[in-house]
Design goal:
The complex is a heterodimer of chains A (97) and B (396).
Chain A: H1 3-16, H2 20-23, E1 28-32, E2 36-40, E3 45-49, E4 52-56, E5 61-75, E6 78-91
Antiparallel strand pairs in A: 1-2, 2-6, 3-4, 4-5, 5-6
Chain B: H1 7-10, E1 12-18, H2 22-31, E2 36-41, E3 45-51, H3 55-65, E4 68-75, H4 77-86, H5 88-105, E5 110-114, H6 121-130, H7 145-155, E6 159-167, E7 170-177, E8 190-194, E9 198-207, E10 209-210, E11 217-218, E12 223-226, E13 228-229, E14 236-237, E15 241-257, E16 259-277, E17 280-285, E18 295-306, E19 309-329, H8 332-351, E20 356-368, E21 371-383, E22 385-389
Parallel strand pairs in B: 5-7
Antiparallel strand pairs in B: 1-3, 1-4, 2-3, 6-7, 8-12, 8-22, 9-11, 9-15, 10-12, 13-14, 15-21, 16-17, 16-19, 18-19, 20-21
Classes of the chains: A alpha+beta (97), B alpha+beta (396).
Pfam family, one (chain B): YqfD
Keywords (chain B): Membrane, Transmembrane, Transmembrane helix
Protein name (chain B): Sporulation protein YqfD
């Protein structure tokens, strides 16, 4: 995507008031208390252990820390996690990888 | 959505995957479009579940990522079926059981008839059998209940409605019997003749030909209403019916004693109570001798009942009541009245309560030996008909 294209896109988003996740390839995260979490539009699993789940995103990564994490389903770009979620940390691409 | 729809029917496998790059495998699986669920991280790797269909597609991915898998569980119908296939007799028994159960459930086991008083249950069951309702009949071979009830109603005489109701394996035939008019007694052709000598005061022929007229004098045995109608060419014998009243004279010899004995209760009473056990009665109250010279005893048994059955124990009371005899002397006038009243009552009971006393004449009256003797003639209007069957004497 060229720079002009990108800026044009940002401009249209602003003008038309469209949801960000539709156009700019960003994840949508739904969190139900600290029990359940659904992440749409992720780019794969980087690390998975009962205490930690790291997901790759279009830009950067998402770290979920908690206890007894279970991926209840993976369907294409959608991923559902259950367990006790303690921390969610968003890392921009510049810092890591 | 936690897992794909109908995963139990399609069969699923629980796997344990060990290796260094388990995350890579998860990504590869997702890329390949394989659905996995219940992914849990453990010390030595990852456990997950996937559909049986996708299991073979997993192999090359495992090789690619250098992981090893270990099957920990087989879930779903295909595995159950395979296991059953190995124990074919068990499976056959299971199937047979199901089939036998279904077959037994589709048999009629009992047929019940309800609501019949006049009709015999056997007749109803016979008719039902001909319509295809009988024990050990297949339910699917029976007609629909409304058709069956219509056919049954046509088959059974004297029935105004038939309902057929099937409840599981029991068939109930509900019957409402038609209300029939009361049967008239059959009569053979007859005449109505006179019972006594009389003067006709009223004649009304309902059926038959009246022979006599009002104020006619008839003798005993005369035909009043003839049962033969028509002329000589076209003759028919019918049952003569009707009402004929006539004036009849009755002579009564009446004697009434002037002394009259009565027994009256004095009101004095002594009660005894008993407890009844079977054939035994135990007296509880009212001991002691009877204090009365003359008495009458009334016994009341009051057994305990439960619903309609009498229990063999209960209560019995005996009431002993004192009586006293009184003597009464009638005046000749009162004795005469009483004698006439007695005669009138006798007429009413003998010749019908609708008899009317037209007049009475005392022919003779005397008082002798403490009695009143009377000879009275009553003129009574009463029914005088008697039946006489018509007999054909062809031999004459």
């Amino acid at each position: 995507m060229t720079r002009i294209g990108r800026s044009l896109r940002g401009w249209t988003n602003g003008m038309l008031d469209l949801p960000q996740d539709l156009l700019s390839d960003m994840p949508r995260i739904t969190l139900i208390g600290n029990k359940e979490m659904v992440i749409e539009n992720h780019k794969g699993v980087l690390n998975f252990s009962p205490g930690q789940l790291t997901l790759k995103l279009a830009k950067g990564s998402l770290e979920i820390a908690g206890e007894g994490l279970v991926i209840t389903s993976i369907l294409g770009r959608e991923l559902a996690v259950e367990g006790v979620i303690g921390e969610i940390r968003y890392k921009e691409s510049g810092e890591n990888r | 959505m936690k897992e794909p729809p109908l995963s139990w029917l399609r069969g699923a496998v629980a796997l344990h995957i060990s290796g260094d790059r388990t995350e890579g495998l998860i990504n590869a699986v997702t890329e390949a479009g394989i659905v996995i669920w219940n992914v849990k991280a453990t010390e030595s790797g990852v456990s997950l579940r996937l559909l049986l269909n996708d299991f073979y597609a997993l192999r090359p991915l495992l090789k690619q990522t250098g992981c090893r898998m270990h099957i920990t569980g087989r879930i779903g119908l295909p595995f159950v079926a395979a296991r059953l296939w190995k124990r074919s007799f068990f499976a056959a028994g299971l199937l047979l059981f199901g089939i036998v159960l279904v077959l037994l459930c589709s048999l009629v086991w009992t047929v019940r008839v309800e609501g019949n008083n006049r009709l015999a249950s056997e007749d109803v069951l016979d008719a039902a059998r001909q319509e295809g309702i009988y024990p050990y009949q297949w339910i699917w071979r029976m007609d629909s209940p409304d058709k069956l009830s219509k056919h049954l109603a046509a088959r059974l005489p004297g029935v105004s409605w038939v309902g057929v109701e099937r409840n599981g394996t029991a068939v109930k035939i509900q019957i409402v019997e038609a209300a029939l008019p009361e049967a008239k007694p059959l009569n053979s052709p007859r005449h109505l003749i006179s019972r006594t000598d009389a003067v006709i005061s009223d004649i009304y022929a309902e059926q038959g030909r009246p022979v006599v007229q009002r104020n006619a004098r008839v003798k005993k045995g005369d035909i009043l209403i003839s049962g033969i109608i028509g002329d000589e060419a076209n003759m028919q014998a019918v049952v003569a019916k009707g009402e004929v009243k006539g004036l009849v004279w009755h002579e009564y010899n009446i004697e009434v004693p002037l002394q009259k004995k009565n027994t009256v209760y004095t009101g004095e009473r002594k009660d005894r109570s008993f407890l009844v056990l079977g054939n035994w009665a135990v007296q509880l109250w009212g001991y002691g001798k009877s204090p009365f010279e003359e008495s009458r005893t009334l016994t009341e048994l009051d057994p305990l009942t439960w619903r309609d059955t009498r229990l063999p124990f209960g209560w019995m009371t005996e009431k002993e009541m004192e009586v006293r005899e009184t003597e009464e002397t009638l005046t000749p006038q009162a004795a005469k009245q009483e004698g006439l009243a007695r005669a009138e009552a006798d007429i009413a009971t003998r010749y019908g309560s609708d008899s009317v006393i037209k007049s009475q004449k005392i022919l003779h009256e005397k008082k002798e030996n403490g009695k009143v003797y009377m000879k009275v003639l009553f003129e009574v209007e009463e029914r005088i008909t008697e039946e006489l069957p018509i007999v054909y004497n062809r031999g004459e």
